Amino acid sequence: MLRIHFTSADLLRIRVASTPDPLWEIICSLHRLQTSRGRWADAAWHRETRAALVGAPLGKAVRRLLVPLMPRALYFPDFLTPHESADGLDRGLAAILDTPPERIAHEVGLLDRVSGAPAWAPRLVERETREGFVRTLREYHEAVIAPHSDRIEASIAGERALRARATLDTGINGLLAGLSPAMRWNPPVLHVDYVEDRDLSLGGRGLRLVPSYFCRGKPIALADDTLQPVLVYSMAARMPDTPVRPADASLAALLGRTRAAALRTLSLGATTSELARFLGVSAATAAHHTTVLRDAGLISSLRSNNTVLHTLTPLGAAMLRPTRLGTAEPVAQGDF
Q1: Closest to 320 measured CA to CA, from 266, 251, 246, 247
Q2: What is the distance between the alpha carbons of residues 26 and 88, in angstroms, rounded to a whole number?
Q3: End-to-end CA separation in angstroms for the chain
Q4: Are 310 and 299 spatial neighbours (Cβ–Cβ below 8 Å)?
């Protein structure tokens, strides 16, 4: 159990990540590859990743360099997930390169004591070795994470919208109480199902909440309590990914004024019942429209208790961007 102790100042400094953290997604995806548990939820991703890695030089590099340093175990080095990664992959990789050698030596030594470090790991104190390691991280991200970026970004955006609504409706207590079944809010302490028993006192530094597309099971925190506190958690409410359909079939199903109005309505996020009231249709009809929009890759849906919140994917948002003619509406022909 991880017990996170908040002060009043910490409650004012809670932040929810607005975009996927690329280095956390790399690590969580590597953890997915190290277990068959729950593989059905990401079956398509597993198939594509296996095709990209098996028998390829990158696959060998992943097995030799990445997995041993990022094991699905009690500990992996904190310097692999720097705070700068919140600003994108380039910033995160640059921070890894600039990590002080003494910190790297300490954390690699800790990994060796906890679960065993690869024989080459101590050489990470050398910048040239880190440069090669960072190149492998970038190649892995480009091959395994980037092809699914739209889906990942849509899921994170939906989760953020869900948390924003919870905060507006019920305040910070509601936000912390509804994060995940693996967390229980008993003010001023957040109790988190964790791999070890420990306490984390925020001490006015606040907490950065990082929803992760690939994280499953228990949340993850940094091992070093002196670093800026981070809590990575699984979006348990994420609905299964829908199969990719031919673009022509998806767009043909989309065309129409009602669904165009639905897409505009969902630009700020809405539940099925809210969408039904806005469109003046039944809940069943609204659910049908959201199914078509989701199958077309234009919206993402997250379940929270007895409601489903729908938000735009990057593709859906692009459909609503103004064109050179000044229109901000998708083409609509006929009605439903």
Answers
A1: 266
A2: 12
A3: 52
A4: yes
State the Cα–Cα distance between residues 241 and 202, nearest whole angstrom: 36
Q: What is the pLDDT of residues 76-128, one digit of tens each?
A: 999 999 999 999 999 999 999 999 999 999 999 999 999 899 999 999 999 99
Neighbouring CB atoms inside 10 A of 31's CB total 20
> What domains are there in the chain, each with its CATH number?
2-16+151-234 (no CATH), 22-149 (no CATH), 247-319 (1.10.10.10)
Q: What is the pTM of this model?
A: 0.76
**The residue type at 189:** V
Measuring CA to CA, how many Å separate 2 from each of 183, 196, 198, 269?
9, 7, 5, 32
**H-state helical runs in the chain:** 8-11, 22-33, 43-53, 57-61, 67-69, 89-97, 101-114, 127-140, 149-177, 247-254, 257-265, 272-279, 283-295, 314-319
Q: What is the dihedral of CA 105, 108, 113, 118, to 10 degrees?
A: -120
DSSP state letter for 210: E
